[in-house]
Design goal:
- The strands form three sheets. Strands 1, 6, 7, 8, 9 and 10 form a six-stranded antiparallel β-sheet that branches. A five-stranded antiparallel β-sheet has the order 11-2-3-12-13, covered by helices on one side. The protein has a two-stranded antiparallel sheet with strand order 4-5.
- The chain has one domain (35-225): 4-Layer Sandwich (Glutamine Phosphoribosylpyrophosphate, subunit 1, domain 1).
- Helix content is 26%, strand content 30%.
- The protein has four helices and 13 strands.
Length: 234
């Protein structure tokens, strides 16, 4: 079973010809389907807040309601995954392995930039075989809290904030209006929760609960907001 969460959002049918470019613009394999997600990250003074919804689907069928799309890559480095669940899980495992090796060889923690570029290299060099859009974020002594967005084709850009997945198209206006440089931890956390909840309300392919992680120099704090307590509204 091919489970996906991420942009682009495509509803497919087993009756479609997988070889037809008109019916299959994203070159999905026979029987493979793609749906959506909402992922987001905002750095603040002292760390970063990352969040995601929890819906994993196969076509119009919700396979998992409470999946975890936020994966730890190293002590203070995490990633939010969108696209093919299998592809992004494999990529996260590779990057986690390489970062662990690097930390042992150098005797110090890897930076978020190194993790992002490892992820970029893997996605870019295998872009014809993968569907993966990833946000890498965390804290390190060099840059503090930072966020990098790695798109489907493998481009890697450091961002003041990052959003991704099919639900992101519904919330650009909201985050443009609410985001500001130099946000506090509480402000960043509140904006992540509110923005993802609005995306979940509008995007049929995003849903479930909101999972978050707050990464600082001292610790990682994981949290979730159940579906009946989403901060949706003005």
């Amino acid at each position: 079973m091919a489970s996906h969460f991420g942009a682009p959002m495509v509803h497919t049918s087993h009756q479609m010809d997988p070889q037809s470019s008109d019916d299959n613009p994203y070159n999905l394999k026979k029987g493979e389907v793609s749906t959506g997600t909402t992922i987001m990250a905002i750095p603040f003074d002292g760390g970063v807040v990352m969040g995601a919804d929890s819906r994993t689907s196969t076509g119009t069928y919700i396979a998992v309601r409470i999946s975890d799309k936020i994966t730890q890559l190293h002590d203070r480095i995490w990633c939010c995954r969108s696209g093919s669940a299998a592809d992004t899980q494999a990529l996260s495992d590779y990057v986690k392995h390489y970062l662990g090796q690097l930390a042992i060889e150098t005797g110090r923690r890897p930076t978020v930039k190194i993790a992002a570029n490892l992820m970029r290299k893997l996605i870019y060099e295998n872009k014809d075989n993968l569907m993966a859009g990833v946000i890498v974020g965390g804290w390190d002594p060099v840059e503090g809290g930072s966020v990098y967005n790695i798109a489907l084709g493998g481009s890697c850009i450091k961002m003041p904030f990052a959003i991704g997945g099919s639900g992101s198209t519904y919330i650009y206006g909201l985050i443009d209006a609410k985001f500001k440089e130099g946000m506090s931890q509480d402000e960043a956390e509140e904006l992540v929760k509110k923005t993802i909840s609005h995306a979940m309300a509008r995007d049929g392919s995003s849903g479930g609960i909101i999972r978050t992680v707050v990464v600082t120099e001292e610790k990682n704090v994981r949290n979730f907001i159940p579906g009946n307590k989403l901060p949706y509204g003005p």
